[in-house]
Structures are given as C-alpha cells and as structure tokens.
Fold these 3 entries.
Entry 1:
Amino acid sequence: MTTLRIATRKSPLALWQSEHVAHLLRAAHPGLAVELVPMSTRGDEVLDRSLAAIGGKGLFLKELELAMLRGEADCAVHSLKVVPMEVDATFALPAFPARADHADAFIRSQVATFAALPPGACVGTSSLRRQAQLRALRPDLEVRDLRGNVNTRLAKLDAGEYDAIVLACAGLERLGLGGRIRARLDAPDWLPAPAQGVIAIECRGDDAQTIALCRVFDHGPTRICAGAERALNLALHGSCHVPVAAFAQLDGDALELQALVGSASDGRSVRARAVGPASAPDALGREVAEKLVAAGAGEFLPALHDPS
C-alpha cells in the first residue's frame, strides 16, 4: 500500500483528529501517503434534536463504515466515546493513540467556577451524563440541550443563549481553544464519559495491511483504561439514553475504575468503584457494573434505555 485513505467527518474537531492520525501514520511509515476523505454524517446534519432522539451516537459512524465497505476509504477516525460498545464483526479497532485530557470543561466568561454560577443560571450540554451530574450538584440550574460542533456551541454561549456550557477538555485543547476552559470538572466529584479523550481508528476486519499499519501506535495504557470503561458501559447497555459515567486509571499493575449511573431529570445517582489487575480490564468493568446494579442503578436503566 502506497496511499492510505482516512474517512472522516467534516467538523473541525474530526478533521483535527484525522490529521493527527495521518501524522502518526506518516511518522511511523516513511513513504506512506495519507489522504483524508471528508464526509457528512446524519449525526452532523440533524441538529434540532438530541442524539438520543435521532438514534444515538452511532449515527456518526455509519456513513464512514459504508465508505470503507465500498472501497472509498481504508480506515476511519472517531472519538471512541461515540463508537458503539459492540462494533460490527465486519470491522476492527486496531489502534487507540495515547489518551488526551479525559475531563469535562466548565466554560463561562464572567465567573471562574461552576459553584459561582448564580441561582437559576442556564447551562447548555447535549449529554445526559452531564445533565445528571449538573442537576446533582446544582438542582437550581436550568439545564438545556446544546448541539453543534465545538465552535457552534461556543458561539451560542458568546451570543448569550446560555450562561455557561460544558464541553470536553480534549476537544477544546485539540482545536487550540484551551484558553476557554475556566475550570476542569474531574474525578472523583465529576466523571467523564467512558473513553472520553480517546481517538479510535477503525478499519475492515479483513484488511490485514491497514490493521498492521495502524497497530504500531496503539497505546497500551489507553487501551486498558478504555477497555474497562467500555466493558462497564456494555454491561449496563449504555447508550445516549442512559447517563453512564466511568473513569479508569492505572497505578502500576493495578487498575482502578469508578463509575456512576444517574437520572438526567433530577440528578439522583449511584456510584461504585473497584480495583483489579491491569491484565483484566473487561472483568473489572463487569464487576463495577454489577456493583452499580446492586446499589440500585436498575432504577434508572430501564426508564432511560430505549429497548429498540
């Protein structure tokens, strides 16, 4: 292979992530030409409804996967947190580059901290997970849905449509907008989405050449932590319909996983954590999921998970 084609969404963040992967590929394989194949997905096009209402985060993947099946692209680049917990057997995820900042970002021009927001302030987020944690910490706030790419969301804040918004630190930093972050919302008080800050490369499962080209920059610690978080989400049937948060971190050969399941409507939630061997991230994810269910997470899961 002399040229590798990367299918990517057209948003500035998606293009940054794909260019980052292209740089990694060129550095690892001198002489390899890498081209981007920008595409629009239904998740990008429908902005007047929440992701949960239009079919979930998988909408960001489908067109890119079809491009690979048609032979128009060799691989695709995604934010791992929007990749379904179970990837179609036709495809593989050969590489997760090193994780960026996992935390969420509080963004507001007038005040420096989330706690300093005035009573009744309007906070924008498209995430049920963030809504659940916002309502748990500040039940007085008005929490409203917020869609669009990073620049669109910031523009809505700057136009006065919201008093503050919550975005991922990684996306802001990748776009050179880290200066907009007023405070990091971080563990243990605030938990991110499973695999937040992780980029995933997807390709056809039978494309051994592309798998080999990408696998050289797979980052072991990132794969372990993301594996535990995604295993928990899978065990809970997590989706856009269920506010599930999870964060794993390595300490030598020990892997800690803390997680939360909550209600976006009133902020009630249950939490659990456990420590296990780094060699068994999937088992740790299932263990913490079982602890959440034992603590009462089932109260939230049936009501919020779309059985269709």
Entry 2:
Amino acid sequence: MSYDTIAVLGAGAWGTALANCAARAGRRVTLWTRDAATVQTIRGRRESPRLPGIKIDAEVHATDVLAEALAADAALLVVPAQATRAVATAIAATQAPAIPIVACAKGIERGAHLFMTEVIRECVPAAPVAILSGPSFASDVARGLPTAVTLAAADEELAAALASALGSAAFRPYRSTDVRGVEIGGAAKNVLAIAAGIVAGRGLGASAAAALTTRGFAELIRFGRSFDARVETLTGLSGLGDLILTCSSAQSRNFSLGLTLGKGEAPELAVAGPKLAEGAFTASALIEMAAAHKVDMPIANAVAAILDNRLSVDDAIEALLTRPFKAEG
C-alpha cells in the first residue's frame, strides 16, 4: 500500500500541523476547510489563521471542496470530536472511493458514547479506519520539532503503511493494532489534564500535581482495562506519554482550561473561551461510560461535576481529599 497523496480534513491548528508533517514526509497534501476565507488566506499568505507565524509547506494545497480533497490515497480527519460525525457524513455523501480515514481527534461522542473510529465506521462503513494519537502540540509538529505518536489500525499492514507514509526524521509514528487503547488514552487524558490545570490554578503545589497525575493515570488504566485495552498501549505514547505532556504544560488547551477554572473563572465562561478544550465535552461521556462499566474514576467525576456546575472547585477538592484511605491500585 502506497499513500503518496494525503487529504487533511480540517484546517485548525492540528490539521495545519499534520498537513505540514505529511508534506515534510514527501506526500502531496490537500488541506480542506469549509471556510473559503481561510482557503484564500492559506493560498495567499501560506499561513493558517489558527496557527499564525508558521509557514505552510509549498506542497500543501488548500481547498473548500471536499470531493477535491478526497481524490487522495488516504485522509486524516482532523476536526473536533463532536464535529466528526458531521464531516464523516459529508464524506459519505460525496460518494468518493473508499480510502483509509485516520481519526485525529481525541474524544468521545456525547450521547452516543462512541469513540472516533466507531463514528467514522458508522458513517463510512466501506472505509478502512485508523487512529493517530500521542503527546504532540500542533506548533511543535508544524515546526518540525521531534515528536513521537501512535498510529493504530486493526489491520497491522494498514497501520504500518500509514505510519511509513506520515513518518519522517522529526515525526515518528509507532504502529499498533490496539485501536481502542489508543482512543481511550487520548480521550481520558484530556479530562485528567483539566484536573491538573485546576491544581495549578489553585496553587496546590508540585506534590499535589504529581499525585493528581499519578492517580489520574490509575483511573485511565482502570477504564482502559474495562474495554480490553492493552496495558502496553495505556503505558505508552498515546496513554501515559500524552497524559504527562498535557498535565504539565499550559500549551495544553485542557490544562489551560483547568488553570482558568482553578483561578475562579465560571465554568460556562471558561469553556466558551477562544480555544476548544476537548476534555470539556468528553468529561460527561467518560464518566457515564465508566459508571456503566463500574469503573471508579473520582478525579474524572470531579472534573465533570465542576464543568456541570454541580460542585465548586473547592468542594470538589475537599471531596477528593476526604475520600477513605485505601491500598494503592
């Protein structure tokens, strides 16, 4: 399988970064967005409004015509998790030939409780599906700074071929067949990163931050095991690796959201900020799925309660600190 042409569907910061990444790997890239003005900006300035100051590679062609973008060997679907169904439905409506679709959003569809590959498979059943996730900031990837991620597909040959097509000296995709494990790591860590930001915003100290990240990882492991995810996936790049990154840097939108909440911003105002934090929309779905599988996730539950205005930040912290003492695990 050879993937010489890549469609990147979504021209936000992450989509723009992955377009540059694919071009750097020697692929011809079409970057699609519904916004005609963004297309003109990219064509004229070679820069995305969502990733200012970073030049877009000359091999990246921008378009607002979805069918034109889908005349490719593979597609990266890089839109927010809650918008994935709409774009996947639009892909199906073009009646373009079925090409592999790589989900690049980290989240769970609210209401339906579906992971991104499940949403794509439901909308475009003929398309082979994969997932790309791991510790990566858009600006780092766009600039060509060293980054390692996980690319998973049920078919190992597909995962290997896609990893080879996107990989370069600076961008290293490690392949896997544990699709669910990779998706769980990406979705759960976003919610836990909000909690880490709250700890920082409240000034609770480095010891509390370390404890929060460690106990949050225990929740991620429990949740993953309930879906038969592999331990090596959860402790790898798309699980522990991504959790470490997003729980320790204000570059993370989810951490930044938590930081704002920790400093006293009302949840509805914090979530309505200019940058989308996927964890704010995943939290409720995550805890509902955890409850259905009888998985204990107190930190994730606290984040969801804060976002839903069911608990104040201080009450949520007190509830966590007064839980009964127990064995570690």
Entry 3:
Amino acid sequence: MSTLITVVIAADPPPRLDKALARDVPEGLGLSRSRLMKLLADGAISVSGCVVTDAKSKVVEGTQIQIDVPQAAPTHIEAEDIPLKVLFEDEALVVVNKPAGMVVHPAPGTPSGTLVNALMYHFGSNLSGVGGVARPGIVHRIDKDTSGVLVVAKSDAAHQGLAAQFEAHTAERKYDAICYGVPDANDPRLRGIRGTSFEPGNVLKISTLLGRHRTDRQKQAVNFDQGRHAVTRERLEERYGQPEALARVSCALETGRTHQIRVHLAHVGHGLVGDPVYGGKRRFAKGVLSDAAVAAVEGFPRQALHAGLLGFRHPLTGQQMRFDAPPPADIALLLDVLQNASAV
C-alpha cells in the first residue's frame, strides 16, 4: 500500500526539482529533504505523469508533481501511559491541549515522555504514517515549553488535508504571550524596524524570513535574504507597571515556523518573559513593579507562551472547527500577579 500526494509548484520556483520540492511540499507532511531525495532515487516521484529521478530536473510554476509515498515503516517509538487532555476526537483526528514541558516528538535528547509516546498508548495504530514512520500523526508542533492546542491526524487522508491547510495559511492559530515592554503599534520606534508594518485595530505585522542562526544552530534568526517566509500579527491586550514595563499580547500566526513568535517579538525588542533563548534578562527600575510582580517575572520558568486557539476545516467533512484552551495555571497565576503590578 502507498499514499499518493500531489504537489503544485508555486510561483518563482528554484530551478532544480529537489529544491522546489523541499520548498513546496507541505511542512506538516513530515517529508524531509533527505526523505524526498530517497523517494526521488526510488522512482516514486512523477512530473506530469512521467517518473523523474534526476534531482536537477527543471520545474516551472504550476507543475504538478505526484509523490507515491510507500506504506509507513514500523516505528521504534514505544507507547507510554502518559495522561492527555483530549479536547476532541473522531475517526479522523484528535485535538489535545499539550502541557508545557512536553516535547511533541521523540528526539535523541528526549526519547521518551513525549506527546507521540502518549498518543501511541491512547490511540494505538490509529495515527497517520504519511511522514514515513507508522503512527506519529503529527501535523504541526509547538515548542516543548509552550502549552496549548494541537491537532493530530488519525489517517493519511486527514494528515494530507490538515497539512495542506497549514501550508496554505488557512488554519487559524492564536497565541497568548507575556512580553517585556509594550509593543504598541502606535509606538514610532517600531516603524523604524525592518519587517514591520501596521494594520487596522492596533495590529503590528512582522514579516521576515526565518532560518538557522549563523553561529548557533539550535536557534532561529530573522533574515531578509534567505530562509522561510514568516508572518506574525501581534495585538496589544494589556499593559502592566507604572511606567509600563510588561504587556500581555495576542499573536496570530499566518505561517508556523520554528520559534516564530519568540524570534519575531525579540526582533522588535519585546522578547517573551521566561524565554532563556530569545527573551533576555531585563532589569526593572525601582518602583515600576511591586516586589511580588518582579519576583514572579524573574522566577517564571519557561517562555510565557500559550497556544490558546486553533481553527481549521475538518479534512474529511469540510466542517469548520475551532478549539480554545485558557492559559494554564502558571500563566494564569503570573497574570493575576501582574494585575496588581504597580509598586505598593
């Protein structure tokens, strides 16, 4: 058995087939560049109905490419009895509220205790394997220390349908965050930062390329000449401190790149509270915040980021679906302290 995937090459493609595929295959399908190269070498990729094995073959905008993905290989990942908060489940998909501290997929440093380990225990073989390994089901990810809503595919058809929506930017994703400073779209300083623009409703749009940091491969970085297109829309929700020192913001993702919100807010000078990689340490002038608020901010153990809302069209029925989850206890407690953030 196999799964046939059709990819249409978008505008301004790279000149080579392998590079065009790496760019235009939906990220959520889990087909890495190395896996695409193997499928190409195995004769599993056709252009306009003809099998192609030459990675240097030329493609143009609108070219239809078929990828015949073989049946997923058995997984080595073990099922683990880890509790999950399931928001919705049917025969096609599962929506879960992932806790902070849980890695989505096993990796060399975290071979167990992940969301996939838990999913395999609770749902057995009923998870898609279109990415090449049986039963991972992962369509999109959120960082280990980010909490919130995530959808998982239970069939290859559902996986393809969901991945296409994430790739086309039609899935709705909104995050709650607490950041340093107050990123008000009316702040003239923000107008001088490359990649920023402003939309009605006091919305700050951040549009850049994102890619690997040049010297630290564990980090992502803003770029303007290479990387993947990334767009975040940020709206100020609440201000804290006298004078204002912190803010609660909502961030809507048009794209979903690795660490996108964290990198984009740091790019405009408003890193997330608790983010050890991009947030930076901030000192507060005496009297700006209460002692309790300062202690709560300085002691917050993770990036203050929560995937609060996820919306998409059901990949099989076409029904529009929307799921939300309130901030978890740690962020709720921090917000409660910040409500009374003025010094006393």
